[in-house]
Amino acid sequence: MEMLIRPLTSGDLDQIVAIELEAHEYPWKKSIHNSCIEVDYPSQVLEVDGELAAYAVYNYLYDECHLMNITTRPDRQGQGMATKIIHHIYQDAKQQGMKNVLLEVRASNHPAIQFYLKEGFKEIGRRPGYYPTKEGREDALVMQKDLTC
Ligand SMILES: CC(C)(COP(=O)(O)OP(=O)(O)OC[C@H]1O[C@@H](n2cnc3c(N)ncnc32)[C@H](O)[C@@H]1OP(=O)(O)O)[C@@H](O)C(=O)NCCC(=O)NCCS
Fold first, then answer.
1. Per UniProt, where does acetyl-CoA bind (predicted)?
2. What is the pTM of this model?
């Protein structure tokens, strides 16, 4: 299995939008991905044998890395893809002087919460009603990982 991690480019967009639709109940639209590329947010794509398997988009603000999106293609989930990408992000963020990684996650997104807990993220707060749901709104957990220890 040949793996490659590289920044996301506009040439990946159609594939990413297709994965996004498969993997998320509330997917990012192509326009959101497009504007992240336009404003030059850092991003990573993980290719396995030349096929896009996972990706992440993040942002740096002062000494904080804000993880905005991390997604593994459904048929590649549970194979360590997100782990590989997030470890790459820690390295990148540390090199850029970031002290922690911060993210919001739906309170009902148990696979993602388990993933972040395994990665050493701690819940540091909640944003009530942050996300829309079919029935109304749901909370976001705010989670943080210290990169300095
Ligand atoms: C969350 C997500 C990115 C994890 O990606 P992944 O490539 O499957 O994760 P990994 O294989 O690297 O898993 C690492 C650890 O995360 C946890 N984990 C991953 N999927 C899990 C699941 N379905 N249930 C419980 N724990 C899970 C486990 O602790 C796992 O370690 P283990 O394999 O030793 O048990 C993936 O489920 C996904 O793309 N979900 C849809 C998009 C999403 O919700 N993104 C996060 C938005 S904040």
1. 109
2. 0.97
